[in-house]
Amino acid sequence: MASKTFDTRKEVDFVVIGSGSAGGILAKELSTAGFSTVVLEQGPYRNAADFTHDEYSVLIQSELLGGGNDVHGQTFRHYEHETAGPPRDRITPIRYAPGVGGSSVHFTANFWRLRPVDFQERSLIGPISGTNFTDWPITYEELEPYYTRVDWEIGVSGAPGPFDAPRSKPFPMPPMPIKSSGVLMEKAAAELGWHAQPEPHAILSQPHNGRAGCVSCGYCMWFGCEAGAKSSTLVAMIPLAEASGNCEIRPESTVIRIDTDDRGRASEVVYLDRDGVEQAQKTKAVVLSANGAESARLLLMSASPQHPDGLANSSGFVGRNLMFNQHSLATGVYEHPLNDYKGVQVSRIIHDFYDTDEKRGFYGGGGIDARPLFSATPIFHALLGTDPNAPRWGKGYKDVLAHDFTRTLCFVGSNTSLAMDRNNVTLDPESKDASGRPAIRLTYMDHDDDLATAAFFEDRCAELHDAAGAMKMWRFGIRPNTGGEHLLGTCRMGNDPATSVVDSKHRSHDVPNLFICDGSSMVTSGRGQPTMTIMALAFRAADHIKAAAGAGEI
Amino acid sequence: MSPEDLSRRMFLKSSGALAGASYLRILAPGLAVIAQAACTARDAEAPFAVLGAEEARDFAAIAARIIPTTDTPGATEAGVIHFIDRAFGAEMSGQLEFARNSMTEFNNALRGKHGDTARLDELDEETQDDFLTSQEQTPLFNMVRTMTIFGFFAMEKYGGNKGKVGWDLLGFDGNHGPWTYPFGYYDAEVHGGTNDGE
């Protein structure tokens, strides 16, 4: 069925900026509730048939990331007193997938809920100096029904674990089957007295909601799913939005500004169409869901005499408190082949170290998963996944490739990041992206506790390899982030307009008909798999926005 | 440090100066056509599209020592040189001049050591490897190493990995799937099957 189209000069009910994890859900929720909705998406509209297993194009040429930094023009520095410069290679510091469905298309689909502690950790353990560590304005109990909606409407497979937060309804389908890496993790965990549990996935383990189940091709991480089994908003939400007859998805539409009228209300969204021609869509209200970097950039780009520091930025918090999550890993090689490149990346995780433990002497926690990581595809393995102590060319290199590819397993720690002023997204004063927009300037230096937590988890990953009987093992040491994919905290929610950008219902404190919902809304970082929470927040935001619109309060 | 961030650092380290420059450009539309032409040229043993025959011989000689022919096929049998030739005409065209100049320097150094008419592939293997060890830190060596890996392991349509010999070396069953459990040795029992993983 042909998608509805709207005239740019006629006011629609909502413009949704971005079609990813949050935007795809908001578009579906608003349009199926009867509101006319235009979705502006900067990337292309790909479908399952457009996704390939072409590692050279997807991983090396960054096909799904819209290309490398020659396109994005981003700059990076660790501290504000430094001058930001381009990365030393072409891979862009802030990574996300422009395109319908956004990064829910190419993500690995590890899918953890937050827990009650994540929302109230500041109250539980007290302040941390030099940070903006604070409680969320909502609780787990308030978000739980929306996590459950994600489970059932987006499609989540899994099974309860020993430390899981309470859930109101079971998983709609069983977890993905265990792989050799999961068996080894279970064995090691049993030996160490820890608990391995099945990984929840935004991947269908069996047919659900008219979609097919996973075929275990192994191309999840950084690839689009050609089977439609990965629960992206592209396959789970966008078709429903378009079928409503109230929604137009407008791809290759790069938003450059949100304009406000003389009452200070958002009135139209200005964008470049696929030919680079400036267009403006009139609207009653704007939902900004462009991701934790792009939403902040757009608000800063929308500065005007009325809003000199950027739109919705009277607090100065737009772009601040960026949290990437820290990570750690240890790689092991085992006696027998695992062939871990087959199937989903992760089948077992360990959450014994989720909570902050004062005995460690620093804030933070996280989870550990077992996965092939670099050994899921040939080029990455040959470039990045081989034993650093082995030869890097010649017969010795070839022998290592032949032996280790099928026998390699990584334990990966995913950890907390603290919200800090110094970690932020701003507009680079000089660099532009290919569309002519001011490029994203990333300033980021992890908090010492984040680095300490990652080091703690690297030790646990190494212990797992020892307990699992690895023939050899190597690790990399923890280094500060110089970029990331988890884009969290930059328009945080809160009750105090002086220290937050949106209220607890995602309405911006400054602009009454501007709603912001994506990773930027998150107040704390969780333990490293944020997409489930971003989607739950989107379902919840949609309920509040629909109620407000229905009551004439927009 | 996320896995991708780590990979970025390691990629940088592994590919040396190659990564420092503009490096790879976005795949241009029509690359599939170029790629197909490269395969056709390879199969027909046709002349190279970008490199001259002597230049191609020099690049191929280095590639042949990075992934040597042993009891299994190496870079030579995989047709890595056809990947390199194609890439220099497409996504790596910006690196061609640098590569050519660096190859001249490489040959000057080689001839300074082994005589005015020396060619890498005419030396015995041990002497080749000794000389390449002396070049290991040069941008050229790292560029050719990275391109050899790309050519050996990328899909055949990019010119190399002929007959999927790169994937065979790894024990990678291919990029098609779907796969059925058990996948390996350690999950065989739980899935009620047997699998030695081989």
Written account of the structure:
The complex is a heterodimer of chains A (554) and B (198). With 554 residues, chain A is α/β, with parallel strands linked by helices. Chain A is built from 13 helices and 16 strands. Chain A has helices at residues 23-32, 55-60, 69-72, 116-125, 140-155, 180-192, 233-236, 238-243, 294-301, 378-385, 395-404, 448-468, 531-550; strands spanning 12-17, 37-40, 75-77, 196-198, 247-250, 254-260, 266-272, 278-288, 327-333, 348-350, 366-371, 408-415, 424-432, 438-443, 472-475, 514-516. In chain A, the strands form three sheets. In chain A, strands 1, 2, 5, 6, 7, 8 and 16 form a seven-stranded mixed sheet that branches. In chain A, α1 packs parallel to α13 (531-550) and α5 crosses α13. Chain B is 54% helix and 0% strand. Chain B contains ten helices and no strands. Chain B has helices at residues 3-15, 17-20, 31-43, 53-66, 75-78, 80-88, 96-114, 125-134, 139-153, 165-170. The longest helix of chain B is centred in the middle third of the chain and has 19 residues, at 96-114. Residues 11-32 of chain B have low confidence and may be disordered. At the A-B interface, α2, α6, β9, α10 and α11 of A face α1, α9 and α10 of B.
Radius of gyration of chain B over all CA atoms, rounded = 19 Å
Q: What share of residues are in beta strands of chain A? A: 15-25%
Low-confidence stretches of chain B at least 5 residues in length (pLDDT < 50)? Answer: 11-32
Share of helix among residues of chain A?
10-25%
Give the overall silhouette of chain A. globular
Question: For the record, what CATH class of the largest domain in chain A applies?
Answer: Alpha Beta
Helical residue percent band of chain B? 40-55%
Task: Considering residues with a beta carbon less than 8 A from a beta carbon on another chain, report the largest interface and each chain's count.
Answer: A-B, 79 and 67 residues
- Oligomeric state: heterodimer
| Overall radius of gyration of chain A | 22 Å
Largest sheet of chain A: 7 strands, mixed
Low-pLDDT sequence parts of chain A: none
Question: What structural category arises from helix and sheet content of chain A?
Answer: alpha/beta
Q: What is the CA–CA distance across the termini of chain A?
A: 31 Å
Distance between the termini of chain B: 34 Å
Helix/strand/pairing category of chain B: mainly alpha
**SS elements, strand count of chain A:** 16
User: How many strands appear in the DSSP assignment of chain B?
Assistant: 0
